[in-house]
Amino acid sequence: MSNISPDRYVSNLVGNGSIVNGATILSSNLNTPGTPARSRNFVVAQKNMNLKSSEASHILEKATNNTLHLDYIIIGQTQYIITSIQERSYYGRNTNTEVGGGIIVCKTAKSVLVATYPGSVSHEAIPLVEHFADSIPQ
User: Fold this and answer.
1) Molecular function terms in GO for this entry (predicted)?
2) Count of domains in the chain?
3) CA distances in angstroms from 8 to 3, 5, 12, 66, 96, listed in the order given
């Protein structure tokens, strides 16, 4: 998939019939030496998720420092709490139990993938998002 644009790549994850209802790829190498100075826009690509710059920055900083589980993750009007931590990933649930759903945040060498899913399909969404994160071109 390395010849596919990041926007198309994210669209493949969120595409028709997918249990993932929103996804964003954040660049985690904006502050590394040799990286050209840019605006503080960390979002490389997203679909069905409107991360504000402050939300993206918060997720990126906390995921990079391995402290994402210490705070709520807020995306728009939705608040998530991390309930499980793996070597490179964080899994959480929507704090509004009436709405349900959850969030998956996976770190890769040069990016952070944020994906949301509806209802109680974490058992299906987690392997899908993890596999997708493995295939993001570095």
Assistant:
1) actin binding
2) 1
3) 10, 5, 6, 29, 31
